[in-house]
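C-alpha cells incoming
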C-alpha cells in the first residue's frame, strides 16, 4: 500500500491535551490553539462506510505557547453516533444494512457526522458538517456538548464553510434545504449577537453547495451542475457518491445576493465548472472579485475518497470578475494548481494580498503562498510520503505571519503540526510538533488566538 494512504486508517486513540515532541524552535509570539476536523473512522462494528464523507468526525487540537506544544484529539459524539454505540451496530449511512438505514431514512432521521470543519465564534467551538446543524465541542477537553440550532434559527443544515467579513465583524453562512422546494437559507451571526436568518434563495433543483463567499455588500453563490438524486437517497441506495450526478449541460448558476436586499439577487448561468472552495471576495467598482479553486468537472469526488488525484483534472486558482448588473462573468486562471485556500482573517471580504494553499506538483503535496495581484508564488514541496492538509495563515503583530499545517508522514505513520514563516515558506518548517500517532485526514480548521 502507498505509505501516504495510511492516513486514512482509523484514529488509533483519543486523548485530551498532552505534550507533543517539538523538533526545531517554535516562534515565541505564536500562542493559541489550532483546531481541525476530519472523518476519523472508516467504519464501525466490522462494517465499512462507502465514502470518506460518511466517516465520523474527530476534532484535533494543537495548543502552542512558551515554545511548547500540546495535542488532543477526540471523536465527536453526536446523538446518531451514540445511538449506534448503544446498539452496537451501524444504523445510518450506506455502511448499515439496507432495511436498517431505510427505516431511519423514512422516519427522516440522519446521523450528524460532524466531520468537516470547526468554527470558533462568540466564545463557542463547533464541529460542522454541511448537511446538519453545528455541534458544540468543549474547547479545553474536546468533549461533545451536543447539536445546536442557535435558539431555533438554524433550520436543518449549516454549511462547513462559514465566512466572516472582517469589516462587519459578522460570520455569514448558508444551509441547504432539500425536497420539493429546494433552496439556500442565508444566515448572519454578528460578534456578540444572535445568529439570524438573512434570507432564502430558491434553487431550481436539489444540489450540493459546499462553500460560498461574501463581501461587505454581497453574498455570492456558484451553483455548479451537480444534482442530488433524492430518490436514491430516500430509497437508501448507495454508494454515497452515486447520490451526486455531474450534469454539465446545466451550466453553473452565478447568484449575487445584496446583503441589504437579500430577496432580490442577480442570477445568471455561465459555463459548467466545479469548485469546492473559495479563497475570498471583495468589491471593485461595479464588479465583485471572487477568488476560488476551479475544477473542470466533478471527478474529484472519487479522488478524495481514494486519496489519489493522479487521474483527475487538477484544480487551478482562479480570479473571477462578476458584474451582477450586466450579468458579466470573466474568470482568469492564475496558474497555480491548488485547493484549500486560506487568507489573513483581517482581510476577509476585502482585497487580500496573498492566499496560502495546498498545492500539487510532480505527484507531491506542496504548500504555497500566492499573491493574486501579480501572480507571484512561493512554493515548498513536501516529501514523497507526506500528506499535507489545508494550511492556515496566522497573523503576527508587526510581522509577516506564520503558516500552520497538520502534516502526515507516511514513513513514520505519525502526524505533526508544522509551523512555517509565511514569507519564507520555501525554506521549510521552523518547527514540527509530533503526535505519537497519526491523525486521520482533516479537511478544515481554525486558529484561536490565546
Ligand atoms: Fe471544504
Amino acid at each position: 500500500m502507498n505509505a501516504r494512504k495510511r492516513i486514512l486508517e482509523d484514529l488509533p486513540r483519543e486523548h485530551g491535551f498532552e505534550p507533543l515532541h517539538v523538533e526545531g524552535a517554535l516562534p515565541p509570539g505564536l500562542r493559541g490553539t489550532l483546531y481541525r476536523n476530519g472523518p476519523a473512522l472508516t467504519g464501525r462494528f466490522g462494517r465499512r462506510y462507502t465514502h470518506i464523507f460518511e466517516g465520523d468526525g474527530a476534532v484535533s487540537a494543537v495548543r502552542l505557547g512558551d515554545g511548547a506544544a500540546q495535542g488532543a484529539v477526540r471523536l465527536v459524539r453526536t446523538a446518531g453516533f451514540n445511538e449506534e454505540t448503544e446498539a452496537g451496530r451501524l444504523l445510518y449511512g450506506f455502511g448499515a444494512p439496507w432495511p436498517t438505514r431505510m427505516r431511519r431514512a423514512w422516519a427522516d432521521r440522519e446521523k450528524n457526522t460532524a466531520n468537516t470543519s470547526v468554527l470558533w465564534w462568540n466564545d463557542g467551538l463547533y464541529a460542522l458538517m454541511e448537511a446538519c446543524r453545528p455541534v458544540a465541542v468543549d474547547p479545553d477537553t474536546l468533549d461533545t456538548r451536543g447539536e445546536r440550532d442557535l435558539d431555533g434559527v438554524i433550520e436543518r443544515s449549516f454549511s462547513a464553510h462559514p465566512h466572516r467579513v472582517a469589516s462587519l465583524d459578522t460570520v455569514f453562512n448558508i444551509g441547504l434545504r432539500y425536497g420539493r422546494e429546494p433552496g439556500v437559507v442565508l444566515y448572519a451571526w454578528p460578534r456578540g449577537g444572535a445568529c439570524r436568518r438573512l434570507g432564502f434563495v430558491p434553487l431550481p433543483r436539489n444540489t450540493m453547495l459546499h462553500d460560498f463567499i461574501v463581501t461587505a455588500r454581497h453574498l455570492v453563490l456558484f451553483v455548479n451542475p451537480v444534482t442530488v438524486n433524492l430518490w436514491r437517497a430516500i430509497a437508501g441506495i448507495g454508494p454515497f457518491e452515486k447520490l451526486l450526478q455531474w450534469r454539465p449541460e446545466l451550466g453553473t448558476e452565478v447568484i449575487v445576493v445584496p446583503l441589504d436586499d437579500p430577496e432580490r439577487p442577480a442570477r445568471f448561468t455561465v459555463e459548467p465548472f466545479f469548485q469546492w472552495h473559495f479563497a475570498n471576495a471583495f468589491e471593485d467598482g461595479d464588479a465583485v472579485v471572487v477568488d476560488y479553486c476551479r475544477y473542470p468537472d466533478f471527478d474529484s469526488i472519487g479522488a478524495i475518497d481514494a486519496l489519489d488525484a493522479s487521474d483527475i483534472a487538477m484544480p487551478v486558482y482562479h480570479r473571477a470578475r462578476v458584474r451582477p448588473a450586466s450579468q458579466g462573468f470573466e474568470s482568469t486562471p492564475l496558474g497555480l494548481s491548488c485547493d484549500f485556500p486560506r487568507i489573513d482573517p483581517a482581510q476577509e471580504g476585502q482585497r487580500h494580498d496573498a492566499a496560502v494553499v495546498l498545492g500539487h506538483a510532480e505527484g507531491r503535496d506542496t504548500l504555497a503562498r500566492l499573491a493574486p495581484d501579480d501572480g507571484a508564488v512561493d512554493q515548498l514541496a513536501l516529501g514523497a510520503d507526506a500528506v499535507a492538509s489545508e494550511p492556515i495563515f496566522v497573523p503576527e503583530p508587526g510581522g509577516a505571519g506564520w503558516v500552520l499545517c497538520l502534516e502526515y508522514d507516511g514513513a513514520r505513520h505519525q502526524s505533526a503540526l508544522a509551523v512555517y514563516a509565511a514569507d519564507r515558506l520555501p525554506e521549510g518548517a521552523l518547527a514540527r510538533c509530533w503526535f505519537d500517532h497519526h491523525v486521520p485526514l482533516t479537511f478544515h480548521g481554525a486558529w484561536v488566538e490565546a
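note: Residues 160-161, 210-211, 276-277, 443-444 surround fe (ii) ion (CB under 6 Å).
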